[in-house]
Write a structure and sequence with these properties.
By secondary structure, this protein is an alpha+beta fold. It has three helices and seven strands, in the order H-E-E-E-E-H-E-H-E-E. It has a single domain, classed as RutC-like (60s Ribosomal Protein L30, Chain: A, 2-Layer Sandwich), CATH 3.30.1330.40. About 30% of the residues lie in helices and about 30% in strands. A hairpin with a 2-residue loop joins strand 3 and strand 4. The protein is globular and about 45 Å long.
């Protein structure tokens, strides 16, 4: 599966970033009971966090792109946690998508599709997941989007 995901990334013109180190007192991934619990991942472009607030200074397209970049970071964290072996992924169970948005912005599900569609494209049927898409007043470091995940893995 790792080779398939690498090929799909290349086909999409994307590449996985280096898995980001935590910015506070937590770990990026916890493995427990056959599941990976992945801490919220921020969107990075050219080594910098994508910032902004949807409905104010960040467009819907920029939000979708930011969510996709969060999805790339999720996959990078999964790959790092599994020693590079993405074939251990059985199912992407759930994504939690947090969108830095104004009170009148209501397209959080459309923003979240940036991450969801990437994960489905990379993992196929195993990438079809449950999801939350929530608007929030602010995110760490001014990020436009943050995404966390729950992933079932093989031993």
């Amino acid at each position: 599966m790792t080779a398939q995901i690498d090929a799909k990334l290349a086909e999409l013109g994307l590449e996985l970033p280096q898995a980001a180190a935590p910015v506070a007192a937590y770990v990026p991934v916890v493995e427990a009971g056959g599941m990976l619990h992945i801490s919220g991942q921020l969107p990075f472009r050219d080594g910098a966090i994508v910032t902004g607030r949807l409905g104010a200074d960040c467009s819907l397209d920029e939000g979708v792109d930011a969510a996709q970049r969060c999805g790339l970071m999720l996959v990078a964290q999964i790959k790092a946690a599994l020693g590079g072996d993405l074939s251990r992924v059985r199912r992407i169970v759930k994504l939690g998508v947090f969108v830095n948005s104004t009170p009148d912005f209501t397209d959080q599900p459309k923003v979240a599709n940036g991450a969801s569609e990437l994960i489905a494209a990379l993992f196929g049927e195993a990438g079809r997941h449950a999801r939350s898409a929530v608007g929030v007043a602010v995110l760490p470091l001014g990020a436009a989007v943050e995404v966390d995940a729950l992933v079932e893995i093989a031993p």
